[in-house]
Amino acid sequence: MTERTVAANDVELWSEGFGDPRNPSILLIMGGNLSAMGWPAEFVELLAAGGYHVIRYDHRDTGRSTWRDFSEHPYDFDDLAADAVAVLDGWEIEAAHIVGLSMGTTIAQVMALDHPKRLRSMSVMLGGALDIDFDTNLERAMAGEASLEGYPLPRQVFLDMLQMMSRPAEGREAVLDQRVTKWQMLFGDELPFDRAEYRRWEERAIEHAGSLAEPTAHYTVSLPPTSRGAELAGVTVPTLVIQAMNDPIAPPPHGRHLADLIPGARLVEIPGMGHALPGSVHEPLSRAILAHVRSADAREARSGQPAGTGTTSC
Question: Is 222 a catalytic residue?
Fold first, then answer.
């Protein structure tokens, strides 16, 4: 593993590479208010063992990257997508396979629209399409109202989790217990939840950041205009959409809807998976991603043309 801090506009971003840098690269983009530690090293190592150079990084305002007062230094998803591109630049990577989770799904879509030549393929999970107004949907879920788009709203357990996390926790043990309980609520009830596993990962995240404080800045970042969803019809990068079948934030059929918007996109469903990355889903998830990126690599080798510059299908 190799650590590297890269410059991204006016911030610095911490990053870490796994595997042989001579191999094709995979860039992992984590969800909101989570550092690179949100990608468990055990999962990252499975991807690297598949023959790839895998990079995870801390978003701004998380982990060891630059933290600032959002009200004084606001940013949007265009900036977050530019951060991901800056990480590629910092590692001298022309194009990579992009894997986005939750907020990372939104960032990956913006990258595919605005920086298509930097993507060799795209794999996204635990998030929705750009034409879904998640912020309004969350408000409607809290008010007990129906979705305007007709797709499922976040489930009550997610609203309960937000309320639980709003209560202050005092001391390391209380903070750890609260953070593990958060994941248990997002995890769902179809797979066994291993509190010891999540405690270990949360301890890593706290040690990595050097603070018990959880990031919150990304709650303030405005979503891209829903009108950008129509632009997904022009995306040519090979795309895999992974639907966690027990996701309380983006439940089915959000994955199918996103896949339908991108020509040739393929949908894979992971039974029992919630809005989390437990060890029990690492194997099927890594297999799906590796199969997709290998297929994209093979197609690129046959055509002699980078994936983002021509029409492709999955």
Answer: no
Active-site pick, 275, 286, 292, 297 = 275
To the query of whether residue 102 is one of the catalytic residues in this protein, the response is yes
| Residue from 121, 247, 254, 292 carrying the catalytic annotation | 247
So what's the pLDDT on residue 309? 47
Check if 297 is active-site: no
DSSP element (H, E) containing 286: helix 279-303
The pair of structure tokens assigned to 59 is 């978003």
Q: Among residues 25, 35, 65, 102, which one is catalytic?
A: 102
Residue entry with tokens 């997904």: 232
User: In this predicted structure, what is the pLDDT of residue 269?
Assistant: 98
Averaged pLDDT, 153-161: 97
Sorted by sequence, the CB contacts under 8 Å of residue 226 that are 6+ apart come out as 130, 131, 132, 133
Q: What is the CA radius of gyration of the chain?
A: 18
Residue 313 pLDDT > 60, yes or no? no
Contact between 124 and 132 (Cβ < 8 Å): no
Structure tokens at 48: 């690297």
Q: Is pTM, for the whole model, over 0.85?
A: yes
**DSSP three-state, residue 126:** coil
**SS3 for 43?**
helix
pLDDT at residue 156 tops 80: yes
Residue of 56, 147, 58, 67 lying closest to 99 (CA atoms): 56
Helix, strand, coil content of the chain in percent (nearest 5) = 45, 15, 40
